[in-house]
Specification:
The chain is α+β, with helices and mostly antiparallel strands. The protein is 34% helix and 18% strand. It has 3 domains: 175 residues, DNA methylase specificity domains (Adenine-n6-DNA-methyltransferase TaqI, Chain A, domain 2, Alpha-Beta Complex); 120 residues, no CATH class; 118 residues, DNA methylase specificity domains (Adenine-n6-DNA-methyltransferase TaqI, Chain A, domain 2, Alpha-Beta Complex).
């Protein structure tokens, strides 16, 4: 059991020397630390404060306010270490009306509920709502050292939380959190090391993310070349075909669509092995089918209206999707699938409410298509090959991103065990973490 914070008040009054801070008993220490480090509890080395929220019904608490005020929602997509302000500002009256209090620059702010684990450092004086536990500056630790420790220990933070509706970390529990305390000089070396290593990993992350961001763009460019005849220009020349087989035509001249059949979750037999397709692909399984293999379906309504799927096996298509029928003697099914992927099927949807498409909206859409079935087959082979390679590149980039996150976790874990090697090269450390 954690003992009372007998040193907490002393931290805020006279300045404790590191050797004066009570050390956690050996039997309660999470793991061994290097010589010169010691396990302490956060409540023994700093003051931990909460926050508050003025009534939203009183406009004068917020209107024209100039006091920065943070809520956990401000950090949901925030990736910087330091923060100046949140979306809302308080007035002096607003601040005084609540339990919010001003905290100084260099305070480490930890979201303590909904969710637990967002961490930032105040760049300037500010205040927070009750969704934070904030650790005031102390002469015993560098703010960034505590920041990275909290950042890498979300499971530990959650283990101290409680609650039925959602987990919340109380101030009393936050004070009990174990903290590995090295000398200040070592803290700074560790922070510098972490940030140097993370900078290199972030460079690799940016390159991998650029690959992923460009996936759909590259896919669209390939499809554009396919349906303007560029991909098969050399093939036509070798085979003696002209471009005359390419025609501009309306979709309604080459295909028809019909709605699938409704199937409620109550009537769905999930013990079956036949996939059930809605507007966004597979939504469940059933023991009956209503389409044969090699069927094209189009999302009919809602967010996924216009999305296109190719069903290789028999399936059940619900009324949230349209079933495409066409003359299979004139058109390759995969060719039409790629054509529809390339076509904006929502271009004639002018509804302001829920998006919906139908035959009457997609039939007038003009497309360019080759009627030469041999060329259609060649286009499918080329696209299959190119997209398979693109998928491999995408999966490789996703794997790199996953590895980077694992390496960051490993770096933080080693940092707070004194195992980071603050005197080695960044490359050596990254290689060591990659082989863990």
């Amino acid at each position: 059991m954690a003992r009372p914070r007998k040193n907490a008040a002393k931290v805020q009054g006279s300045l404790l020397a590191p050797d004066e801070v009570a050390e956690i008993p050996v039997e309660e220490q999470p793991y061994p630390l290097p010589e010169g480090w010691k396990w302490v509890r956060l409540g023994d080395i700093t003051e931990i404060v909460g926050g508050g929220t003025p009534s939203s019904r009183v406009k004068e608490y917020y209107d024209n306010g100039n006091i920065p005020w943070l809520s956990p929602a401000d950090l949901s997509d925030y990736h910087e270490i330091y923060i100046c302000r949140g979306k809302k500002m308080l007035t002096v009256k607003g601040l005084n009306s609540s339990s919010a209090r001003m905290i100084p620059a260099e305070t480490v702010c930890l979201s303590s509920r909904a969710p637990i684990g967002y961490v930032v450092i105040a760049k300037n004086p500010l205040c927070t709502n009750q969704g934070f536990k904030s650790f005031l500056p102390s002469h015993l630790y560098i703010p960034k050292f505590l920041y990275w420790y909290l950042k890498g220990n979300k499971p530990l933070l959650e283990s101290y939380a409680s609650g039925t509706t959602f987990l919340e970390l109380s101030g009393a529990k936050a004070a009990q959190i174990e903290f590995p305390l090295p000398p200040l000089g070592e803290q700074q070396r560790i922070v510098d090391r972490i940030e140097s290593l993370f900078a290199k990993l972030d460079e690799a992350k940016a390159k991998a993310e650029a690959v992923l961001d460009g996936f759909e763009i590259r896919k669209a460019a390939i499809l554009h070349k396919a349906f303007t005849g560029v991909l098969t220009a050399k093939w036509r020349e070798e085979k003696g075909f002209s471009f005359d087989s390419w025609k501009k035509i309306c979709l309604g001249k080459i295909l028809k669509v019909s709605s699938g059949k409704g199937l409620t979750s109550k009537n769905m037999d999930n013990s079956g092995k036949i996939p059930v397709y809605g507007g966004n692909g597979i939504t469940g399984y059933h023991n009956q089918s209503n389409v044969v293999k090699n069927t094209i379906v189009i999302g009919r309504v809602g967010y996924y209206c216009g999305s296109v799927h190719y069903i290789k096996k028999e399936a059940w298509v619900t009324d949230n999707a349209l079933i495409v029928s066409f003359d299979r003697n004139k058109f390759e099914s995969n060719f039409l699938f790629y054509l529809l992927l390339h076509t904006d099927l929502r271009q004639n949807d002018s509804s302001t409410a829920q998006p919906v498409i139908s035959g009457s909206k997609i039939y007038p859409i003009e497309i360019t298509i080759t009627t030469n079935i041999l060329e259609q087959q060649k286009i499918v082979r080329i696209l299959d090959s190119l997209f398979a390679k693109e998928q491999q590149v995408k999966e490789a980039a996703e794997s790199v991103l996953n590895q980077i996150e694992l390496m960051k976790k490993a770096i933080l874990a080693r940092a707070f065990r004194g195992e980071l090697g603050t005197h080695g090269s960044a490359r050596d450390t990254l290689q060591n973490n990659g082989s863990m």
